[in-house]
Design brief:
- The chain is mainly alpha-helical and about 325 residues long.
- It has a domain of about 190 residues.
- The chain contains 11 helices and 2 strands.
- A two-stranded antiparallel sheet has the order 1-2.
- Strand 1 and strand 2 form a beta hairpin.
- The protein is globular and about 85 Å long.
- The chain starts with a helix and ends with a helix.
Length: about 325
């Protein structure tokens, strides 16, 4: 016959076991959710390579050696980092690259999108260059995916930050090291190009104004040849990858004038101004470096054109203006 004490003890033991079972079940569910929301490191590595092969030459918002250093730290830590800038940058790179794949892994990229948005939203209003790099990547990502709402949202934040940091102006008496100076230029002109193409897509005027811009273009030299102390020697026979971006930046300047003409407050449409803009576009075509020209054989593109930088240049322009 059970005593009152023994009944109480059994009841207490049963409650403890029930709590233990609930805890085990919750732990297993949490582990399963974390596994389901984790990305395979090989998947990330493959997308990283695609980004720097296909996208970075046109949108050099990141210094490649620095970005790969961040990536190695991320991989060495098995992706376990609390640095929001690192998380936003890595997963934005993966998402951008994945959207250019013929057969994207929708589940992996859904996880990826969630991760970069969570990380970016936590730092979006920080006042530094790292944040601006992430915001610029986010604009590019949203343009590719056709997310018009987020294009406008991130673009307003990014351009406000760019103006705050003074990226659109020559630095004057402020002495910056070579790498910082070049990085700022590349971020700004990438942001300018995305502002231009997204304005064309959304049928609005640009937020950045040419009349306020005094900063010049970045140098025609790839990131691995730039250090804080200066420029390293580069092979004269090999065209730079950033030459793709420089061509795109100059095309954006011409398109910006057409947009300004289209969406200006002036009621009168003057055909002479559009003719002048057309002349600038013709001049841009003439000045394109030889290695970026498309060569047609019997009025047809060569079979391997999909892997050439000229084709990619055409591809980026068509994607961003769709």
């Amino acid at each position: 016959m059970f005593t009152e004490t023994s009944v109480h003890d059994l009841s207490s033991t049963g409650e403890q076991e029930a709590r233990s079972l609930r805890h085990d079940r919750l732990s297993k569910n949490r582990t399963l959710e974390q596994h389901q929301e984790s990305l395979d490191l090989q998947f990330i590595q493959d997308r990283f390579a695609i980004f720097f092969e296909q996208w970075a030459p046109f949108f050099p918002v990141l210094h490649e050696p620095t970005a790969f250093g961040t990536y190695r730290e991320f991989v060495n830590g098995s992706g376990n980092t609390k640095n929001k800038h690192t998380l936003a940058q890595i997963y934005l790179i993966v998402d951008i690259a994945g959207q250019s794949c013929q057969s994207p892994d929708l589940q992996q990229h859904s996880i990826c999108k969630k991760k970069w948005q969570e990380a970016l939203n936590a730092i979006a209003f920080d006042k530094d260059v790292l944040t601006l790099q992430c915001l610029t990547l986010a604009i590019l990502c949203c343009i590719i995916s056709g997310d018009d709402h987020r294009i406008g949202y991130y673009k307003h934040i990014a351009i406000d930050l760019s103006n705050y940091l003074g990226l659109h102006k020559k630095q004057g008496d402020i002495r910056l090291d070579c790498l910082t100076n070049e990085t700022r230029k590349r971020i700004f002109w990438t942001l300018y190009t995305l502002d231009c193409f997204s304005a064309s897509r959304l049928k609005t005027s640009m937020l950045l104004k040419d009349t306020e811009i005094t900063i010049d273009y970045p140098g025609d030299i790839d990131g691995e040849h730039i250090t804080q102390h200066g420029y390293l020697n580069t092979p004269s026979w090999k065209p730079s990858r950033i030459s793709c971006a420089l061509a795109l930046f100059r095309a954006a300047r011409v398109l910006a004038k057409a947009l300004d003409e289209r969406y200006s407050d002036v009621d009168e449409f003057i055909s002479e101004r559009m003719t002048a803009i057309e002349g600038e576009l013709d001049a841009w075509l003439i000045q394109i470096p030889r290695h970026l020209e498309l060569e047609f054989i019997q009025d047809k593109c060569p079979q391997d054109v999909e892997n050439s930088r000229p084709w990619l240049l055409v591809g980026q322009a068509s994607i961003l203006n769709c």
